[in-house]
Amino acid sequence: MNRTQSLSALALSSFAGAALLAGAALAHHGWSWAEADQIDLTGTITAISFAPPHPTLELETAEGPWRIELGNPNQTQRSGFVEGVAAVGDEITVRGNRSLDPDEKRLKAVRVIVEGTNYDIYPSRIVTN
Amino acid sequence: MEWLSVLGETSVARALIRAPVLYIFASAAHILSLAMLVGASVILDLRLLGRFKSLPLAETAELLSRIAALALCLAVLTGAVLFSVRPVEYAGNTAFLIKLLLVGLGTANAVFVHLSRDWAEMIVEQQASLRLRIGALISLATWLSAVLAGRWIGFL
Q1: Within a domain: residue A24?
Q2: What are the DUF6644 domain coordinates in residue numbering (chain B) (predicted)?
Q3: Residue A66 backbone dihedrals phi, psi, to 5 degrees
Q4: Which residue intervals of chain B are DSSP H helices?
Q5: pLDDT digits over A45-85, tens only?
Q6: pLDDT of A42 higher than 70
Q7: A with B: how many residue pairs have Cβ under 8 Å apart?
């Protein structure tokens, strides 16, 4: 290899190395990070955002603050859980799958319950007892 | 941080939150800009480093650098729109901040190289100096790393 070839090979291989490291980062997309069993969480909304790419809300519960991840913006809208249904200060219940990491208070929601009304974000995933 | 949350209430941000389909268009436009920017930059950098010798150096450099500059403007514009929907969250995202730094470095490097005497001589002499080739390496490293950092944003 001449000098310029070795230089471009070096640049490309360092990028490949960085790309391998990226594979180690575990995504919070999908369900791979969450437990199979579902739990119900009741608490007061402290923050709510319908902004893409992932609508989220923060819930203050008896066991501290939780971060709730909803569906993608369209799935969340189709469930009927849209802006105005619930606001900061409202008490709601959320059913979903909690993070595999027991120290991480993060839940992937399948259903949101506001004043007795169910908003089913992932109808086919909801496990009923 | 207060001015950032105000950004999330602008009409552009509100429209994207109300109609997620607009977000899809903005996101696709951002990806298209990146493809143009990185595509043009990588080919030009490799040409400066001695690959694809059948391409005339001066013409290739002038065309691809112009495409890259236009694509960078589009990427910044569409990126600002995407940023506006969750400004406070992105501003606290380490991968996003690293990406901004890399984009700044890449842009500064491109402007510096483009305005250098080496660039003007390359256009006339059809020959890339060592400094231009070092610039090409910096360009490859910063833009490819910026793509990586950008993809990392959603995984923190």
Answers
A1: no
A2: 22-155
A3: -125, 145
A4: 2-7, 11-18, 20-48, 57-84, 87-91, 94-115, 117-125, 130-152
A5: 999 999 998 899 999 999 899 999 999 999 999 999 999 99
A6: yes
A7: 65
**The token pair that represents B131 in the structure block:** 């400094």
Full residue range of the structural domain in which residue A96 is found? 34-125
Closest CA to A65 of A104, A110, A121, A26: A104
Q: What is the pLDDT of residues A94-103, one digit of tens each?
A: 999 999 998 9
Q: Do A51 and B85 touch (CB under 8 A)?
A: yes
Q: For position B55, what pLDDT does the model report?
A: 96
Q: How many domains does chain A have?
A: 1
Domain with B44, as residue range(s), is 2-153
Please name the member of B18, B145, B156 whose beta carbon is closest to the beta carbon of A18: B145
Partner-chain contact B13 A72, CB within 8 Å? no
